What we know:
By secondary structure, the chain is mainly α. Helices cover 76% and strands 0% of the residues. It has helices spanning 2-19, 25-31, 36-46, 53-87, 97-118, 132-139, 143-155, 159-174, 179-184, 190-203, 207-217, 224-238, 242-258, 263-275, 279-292, 297-309, 313-326, 331-353, 361-384, 394-405, 407-419. It is elongated, with a radius of gyration of 34 Å.
Amino acid sequence: MIMKKMMIAALMTVAVSTAWAGDSDALKKIMKAGTYAEAESMIKSSLSALANDAEKAKAYNKLVDLAMKGVSKEMNVITNNQMAEQLGQGKVEQYDTLSFYTSLSQAFAAAKECEKYDILPNAKGKVAPKFHKSNQERLFGLRSHLINAGIWYQDKGDLKKAQEYLGSYVDSYSEGLYKELAEKTPDENLTNIAYYAAVFAFQNHDIENCGRYADIAKKDPEKAKDANNLKLAVVQESLKTRADSLNYVTTLEGQYANDPNDEIVFGTLVGMYSGLGMNDKMESLFDKKLATDPDNFTVWAIRGQNFMIAQDLKNAIDCFKKALKTQPENPQILTFLGACLLDRGSEAENNAAGKSGRVSQAAMDQIRPLYEESKTALEKAKELDPDQASTRWAYPLYRCYYQLYGADDARTKAAEALANGK
């Protein structure tokens, strides 16, 4: 009987000591940390030594507290500066932009980790988060600064950081930590920022996040086509084998069948047909397109290029002229047209010369208009693209001057043309 009472007493002692157990030694050390870097290092090295999920949540909340010290310090300067400018009183002080944005990023990241453990059920199976509400309230209102940070890093040419901050802005809106406030606060910037996050992700070769952010951006009617274009580019980046490409073609064909007016999908499908040598399918697609859109630029531009490659100059010229009906100031098509007219003139001149090597004046009178028309097209291309950013008009224009004016005048005129460009 005595033994039994002793055992019961011992068990009660264990229960009481467990119920009133304080923080583990590992957590106590973390809670004494004075800087974010110090606390973060301790958490990384001793996370497994923390007693339970509640301790892990508390440790990460300590990180949020330390990061928020840095945020608050710079925010105070920013607020005082705004007041000084509005009231015309006081002194505008320089604040540490890098420190501010770094602390901001750390606060959002630490809060996300804190939430992960804070919402887990305790030993009794109950969910009783301790830090959810406070972190939600102190961070949600700071999201707009993530946009400013993304722009700041973009201006500095650091697109990875720009993506990181804009992505954090987008992601935070749908994260559980901010769900209640997000539902009450429609975000008019979300789809626009998601689009730029997708652009930066694409430039950073982050294919997964590019597609994810593009899907959010597509919800905005004004961004839908551009976002879809990004998604198509992402898929093309991931194609490894011919089988991948053929499967992608099937997907594009389905998308195009659902929306024949989507020029992005149409252009992508045409490019895939061309790259895979599926010329019959491409021409069939062109015929169907022209039946409903006789002046479609893409059809005539690509047909013209195909004829140009095949040295069918007459048909190439005809196609390029039809393409220019809808885009009369397209410097690339103007250059292609000018080059084809030039080659056709040279071809006609060689035929007229025959074995004698001489071209009669009557024949030149017939040929010269081809060179004049070529010059007009190429000079317009030069005017539209003086730096040759999208097309190389300089060499065919020099050749055209040579045919029309002779070697000396051609060099002079070509030099003048290049002086206005590059």
